[in-house]
Specification:
Elements: E1 8-13, E2 17-18, E3 26-27, E4 32-33, E5 40-43, E6 46-49, E7 53-65, E8 72-79, E9 82-83, E10 89-92, E11 100-111, E12 116-122, E13 128-130, E14 147-153
Antiparallel strand pairs: 1-4, 1-14, 2-13, 3-12, 5-6, 6-12, 7-11, 7-13, 7-14, 8-9, 8-10, 8-12
């Protein structure tokens, strides 16, 4: 009580991430820390909390497909290796082949010290992947990650 809430992390993926198969739970890997995290760490997509509390977790996954079949995609969270009830979010990728669409999901989760969370996704269409986009010119603009996760303590 009366303490400052100051635990957070921001991690992204700078790689394309392929679909492992029609029935595979694909773990979202995060390979780059954007800001110096405080109380939250990442190891290849396994997020670990040092401090217990309630955290807001926002994921942004950038999906693409090499076919224009408008595939359905599901993404969800697990905590300590168990899927979090009611965290599953379904959506449909629209726009045709090779378009990129962001899926943003936000959850609030209660964690204990040393708890872990993971972000998973699945599509029965094996042509779906997470798309990293390189920096572009004319005009100059930065690269776009294939996935990001933003975590901050709210209680």
């Amino acid at each position: 009580t009366g303490g400052a809430l100051g635990y957070y992390g921001l991690f992204v993926s700078t790689a394309n991430q392929t679909n492992g198969g029609a029935t595979v739970a694909n773990l979202t890997a995060f390979d780059t820390q954007i800001v110096t995290a405080n109380g939250v760490s990442n190891s290849a997509g396994v997020i670990t909390f040092t401090i217990a509390g309630v955290y807001q977790v926002t994921t942004e996954l950038f999906y693409t497909s090499t076919t224009g079949a408008n595939p359905t995609i599901t993404q969800w969270l697990s905590q300590n290796g168990t899927n979090i009830a009611n965290s599953s979010q379904d959506f449909q990728l629209l726009g045709g082949a090779n378009t990129v669409q962001a899926a943003v999901c936000t959850w609030q989760i209660s964690v204990s010290a040393s708890d872990t969370i993971r972000v998973y996704w699945n599509s029965s269409n094996t042509n779906v992947s997470l798309a990293y986009q390189v920096a572009l010119t004319n005009p100059a603009r930065p690269a776009s990650p294939s996935a990001s996760i933003i975590i901050h303590q709210v209680a």
